Amino acid sequence: MINPELNKIYWDTRHKKSQTGWDIGYPNAIHTDYVKANFPKNTKIIEPGAGNAYEVSALWKDGYTNVYALDYSATAKEAFISKNPSFPSKQYLVRDYFDIKGEFDLILEQTFFCALDPSLREAYVNKTHSLLNTGGKVMGVLFNFEKTDGPPFGGSINEYRHLFENKFEILCLEKAKNSIPERQGNELVFELLKKT
């Protein structure tokens, strides 16, 4: 059963009250280093549940002009645009992930998946698959712990493998070696390739 409280109002209120414990305050190098090492500057990228979108900001400043942020919270967008005035406002989408359309080369997963009610995980897989171009990838981190009273919600390698393997080729799904100190031992890094 989907938790009705994890809605647009909930997440915008969290941002308004600065109750953003997931926010590390800077770009996560797991994501930005991966993009810079593997994708050209014209790659179409989206980070869902982006919040303050540090990765989007860092990539934009490094010349990735086709990068998008997505969040439920208009408050998060306002804060981001005020700190990144050169960023095109239209590339920060304030919408529900399941309602957006488009085709992307890469979806960056930071702390969006773990914020979703677990009953939406299969829908997440299907939506993510549909948003990717042929040859598109998903890359990021997932929490490696059992926690059902989130957010954040956790999971295990076996659970994630079972969830993704029908729609994606799993290129990497392993314990993260370079997590931020607060998340050491609790993260998995993963890379998925869209199956056609």
What does this structure look like?
This protein is of the alpha/beta class and 196 residues long. The protein has one domain: 3-Layer(aba) Sandwich (Rossmann fold), CATH 3.40.50. Helices cover 29% and strands 23% of the residues. It has 6 helices and 7 strands, in the order H-H-E-H-E-H-E-E-H-E-H-E-E. The chain has a 7-stranded mixed beta sheet with strand order 3-2-1-4-5-7-6, sandwiched between helices. Strand 1 (45-48), helix 3 (54-61) and strand 2 form a beta-alpha-beta unit.
Record keyword descriptors for this entry:
single chain; 196 residues; alpha/beta; Rossmann fold; 23% strand
* Share in β-strands: 15-25%
Reported CATH architecture = 3-Layer(aba) Sandwich
Q: What distance lies between the first and last C-alpha atoms, to the nearest angstrom?
A: 30 Å
Range of helix content: 25-40%
- SS content category: alpha/beta
User: How many strands, what sense, and barrel or not for the largest sheet?
Assistant: 7 strands, mixed
Q: What is the residue-mean pLDDT, rounded to a whole number?
A: 88
Quickly count the helices: 6
Task: Please state the CA-atom Rg, rounded to the nearest Å.
Answer: 16 Å
Strand order of the largest sheet: 3-2-1-4-5-7-6
Regarding CATH, which class? Alpha Beta
Unreliable stretches, pLDDT < 50, 5 or more residues?
none
At CATH level 3, the topology is: Rossmann fold
